[in-house]
Amino acid sequence: MVVAIILLVLVLGTVVFHVLSPWYFTPIASNWSSMDDTVTLTFVVTGLGFVLVNLFIAYCLIKFRTKEGRRAEYEPESIKLETWLTGLTTVAIAAMLAPGLLIWKDVVTPPDEAMELEVLARQWNWSYRLPGADGRLGAVAVSHTSEDNPLGIDPSDPFGQDDVIVYDPVMHLKVDQPVTFLLRSNDVLHNFTVPQFRVKMDFVPGQVSYIWAEPTAEGSYDLLCEELCGVGHYAMRGRIIVDSEESYADWLLDQPTFAETQAELATDLVAGQGSYAVCSSCHGANGEGNQAMHSPRLAGMDGEYMRRQLRHFKQGVRGTHEDDTWGQTMAPMAMMLADAAAINNVVSYIGTLSGQSEFDDEAHYNLSAAVERYEPASSGDPSKSAALYQSTCAQCHGDDGEGVWTVNAPALTGLDDWYLATQIKNFRDGIRGRHADDLYGLQMGLVSNTMTTDQAIEDMVAYISGLENPNQPVKLAQQR
Ligand SMILES: [Cu+2]
Known about the structure:
With 480 residues, this protein is of the alpha+beta class. The chain is 43% helix and 11% strand.
């Protein structure tokens, strides 16, 4: 009797919980309402089965409970009952699965008017490519992949020249425009999931898989890699922004074609030097940095990393947090660089700088005493952070702190200890890397939580300062 009551409460509780549960699908933002219908159908069929079976058990427990003088009967076979049960189960399972097959046909058949969009997944980031004016994506090969051609487009294929390159985890789509996502991976299995779109698909290295959807609601949606096998997929965040037709067109205008990204490599150093005049007041004439202005050394810094930081400062992705005093002094400087070409010119010019400090007297450092600054404590113990560096930081920043471009992690060597320490603290305290569009910063932010105390950060900085990066033999002159 008690068991029967427990069963009844369980059944009732489950049904009520299902109806009242706050955990359900995110609001849908695509054409795939049929997906929701199949899931609802599955819930109804399995739910009915669950309720009926449990009610039947409860009924039997009550009806056939122990009674004085009643004996159980043994009846192993009942053709009639088994025929009924098999028939019913077959009908229920067919009812559950058959609609799914029809919908699957739609999933694998993109409509003719669907526009193509290539998504490139790599441990642990996303980039995208659109066919240009010719409507055709150019050929690609992993062997063409380099820092200057991160998507590996074949430079000799004319169809590739006008392809639009989005080397950023944030992608824009036009509302009510069906899109076929062509999924390409450069390394391992990945997975393309926008929960609001309802459809998802795996990437398989060596082939191009696909999925299609028609975004029906403007908004900003998380792109997740829901791959289980392997490491770190959870940190692979992207963003899909569904725009109105006009804002999509505006955004598209700003995106470079492959040919443009290659032409940008040939830059105007004279123009770059002109723009750098402003920068030198803080970052130094030779890009050596200036602690008084809290401005880091730029000489020797990775070009793509600098371009991204300058874009982010311009777009308000970095340097807008209310506690980011130093970022806020930098952001207006980036505004002075009018466009991608200007950013590119100044970054190329910085690439020619020696990083040699002009200040060899004490006066400069006395000046800095007046400015609030982080004091790198000599108490930093590199041996305490060696294990954390090698097991975690080295994954992205390299064994010798040389930086790894495929994961967008910059070199850490060459940066002053005070700068390293404030940046790690900024990531940890959510002052840097928390803007919705700062997805690389987010990755770093998640990792910065491994250093919970300021002492741990000092230990880490002490360890990084001791690293010898073979690509950057010039070590910082320690003038203190
Ligand atoms: Cu992944």
